[in-house]
Amino acid sequence: DIQLTQSPSFLSASVGDRVTITCRASQGISSYLAWYQQKPGKAPKLLIYAASTLQSGVPSRFSGSGSGTEFTLTISSLQPEDFATYYCQQLNSYPRFGGGTKVEIK
Amino acid sequence: QITLKESGPTLVKPTQTLTLTCTFSGFSLSTSGVGVGWIRQPPGKALEWLALIYWDDDKRYSPSLKSRLTITKDTSKNQVVLTMTNMDPVDTATYYCAHRSMFPILDIFDYWGQGTLVTVSS
Predict the structure, then answer these.
(1) pLDDT in tens, A21-58
(2) Cβ neighbours of A38 in B, within 8 Å
(3) Which of A73, A104, B47, B55 has the fewest Cβ atoms within 10 angstroms?
(4) Residue A56, SS3?
């Protein structure tokens, strides 16, 4: 049973900051990882799949990297609309989500 | 365009069975590769995947909830139904249905419904 651990669970940042969120898998999952953004009261939005491929329509300030057990989501220059909660999801065995990282305004 | 919408009771009593319907448009569950999943989110908590049904009627369930879940499809009505037995207050959550990605074909979810909040209380 593959567990996903996101860190930090909460971060405070300012507009323009570079932000990095980490997702660690308890076993290797190759590149079978996706990232989602969720704003309050809204459904999640797919940002990245296959660890580093940007979903169509997602701004290029979002990027993903990693393989095996350690993955990162980076926002190169945080914009006001990026304040949200971010989830990783592994799809190596069955779909499973991480615990989430809430990005708040500093 | 692809849309999905969840429907069902907003309040269920403990021990009752929950039945949720996902009505979708913009795709067909008879097309090879297509799938629809259910994901839930307790208030203030993380997402939890529940079940997934594929075009060929293959079904997958969360191991921790498998004994309580049943997912079915009605291709002619463009609907997917999830039933969850023996509901408990800890099952209080927003329940989402979502479209499985076709490009690429992976068990990720590129279109989501708006979600429906289900409260379990006597």
Answers:
(1) 999 999 999 999 999 999 999 999 999 999 999 999 99
(2) 47
(3) A104
(4) coil
Distances in Å between the alpha carbon of A83 and those of A17, A37, A46, A52, A97? 12, 9, 15, 21, 19
Question: Quick one: A43 exposed, middle or buried, by C-beta within 10 A (0-12, 13-18, 19+)?
Answer: buried
Which residues touch A42 (CB under 8 Å, ≥6 apart)?
Answer: none
Cβ distance of B113 and A43 shorter than 8 Å: yes
- pLDDT tops 90 at residue B105: no
Burial letters for B54-65: b for 16+ Cβ neighbours within 10 Å, e otherwise? bbeeeebbbeeb
Measured distance CA(B86)–CA(B14) in Å, rounded: 7
Percent of chain B that is helix, strand, coil (3-state, to 5): 5, 55, 40
Give A-chain residues touching B46 at CB under 8 angstroms: 87, 97-100
For residue B77, the distance in angstroms to the closest alpha carbon of chain A comes to 24
Do residues A27 and A33 touch, judged by C-beta distance below 8 A? no
Work out the burial of residue A67: count CB atoms within 10 Å of its CB; fewer than 13 is exposed, 13-18 middle, 19 or more buried.
middle
Binary contact (A94, B47; C-beta < 8 A):
no
Tens of pLDDT, residue by residue over B26-35, are: 999 999 999 9
**Tokens standing for residue A75:** 């926002």
